[in-house]
Amino acid sequence: MRDDIAHDKHAIAKSFGNAAKSYDNVAGLQQRVGNVLLGFVRDSMSRESAPKVLDLGCGTGYVMSQLVDDSELMFALDIAEGMLGVAKFGMSENGKANKSIHYICADAEAIPLKENSVDLVVSNFAIQWCPDRQVLLEEIARVLVPGGRFVFSMPGADTLHELKTSWQQADPSHTHVNQFCEMDELATDVQHSPLQIEVLQSQVEIMRYNKLQELTHELKALGAHNVTDGRARQLTGKNTLKRLVSAYDEFRDIEGMLPATWNVIYGVFVNQKNTVEGSG
Ligand SMILES: C[S@@+](CC[C@H](N)C(=O)[O-])C[C@H]1O[C@@H](n2cnc3c(N)ncnc32)[C@H](O)[C@@H]1O
User: 2.30.30.40, 3.20.20.70, 3.40.50.150, 3.50.50.60: which CATH number matches 9-158+178-206+262-279?
Assistant: First the structure.
């Protein structure tokens, strides 16, 4: 189902492109989540020797760099040209420039690959930026071979709830924090696609900061700041920022730190497309 709040893909590509050079310095959580994801990926890869792999929203290439040695062919797809540039540079720095990697600047909802072209699709913290999950899941099923797996992580609904609540108090007329989907909504969407759930689970990660500015700077350096339709188009005023800081202060924990919750969803979906077609 399409997310209520539309995403502006041009703004997303620009935001991540601008953040490409700072991303790795602040992507500690994304890399930790990526490591958990790689555990699921390795289980899936053990069924297939030297698979063809697509990394959807590959960013600076953290996940793909760890899979490329065991893959026959790697497709690194991202909507932001700047991210692909950094990923390519990283591969050559790591002596992996000669590997079979195709870099593709494209939208995950319109993958420019033929049907049945990959054995595995991986995606770490990227598909939350795709507003039409049904289209996305259909695309993934189309490019995956029958029986192939889609292994992913994404932030779920409760993510950054402290920031969301604080902004609602400080500036109720604008949406300041991206909307993330519930795991149940995702499970319903999968039922209407050729994919079948093998694993779907979530885990809470709490980041802690001394000052709110540290969190907002980090989100900016990740390129993950707000791109929702209801966002404010002008700079935020001083008084609004003061209200925001004091609302967020209410969340300080017993050690005086500001928490930021990330609800991380992990999933492994199997492509059943032939079964579905054959059963009709
Ligand atoms: C939070 S970063 C994650 C990057 C990387 N997977 C990692 O583990 O660090 C999200 C990435 O998704 C990309 N992205 C966002 N929307 C996309 C879309 N519709 N199609 C393809 N890539 C997209 C962004 O450009 C960005 O590189």
Answer: 3.40.50.150
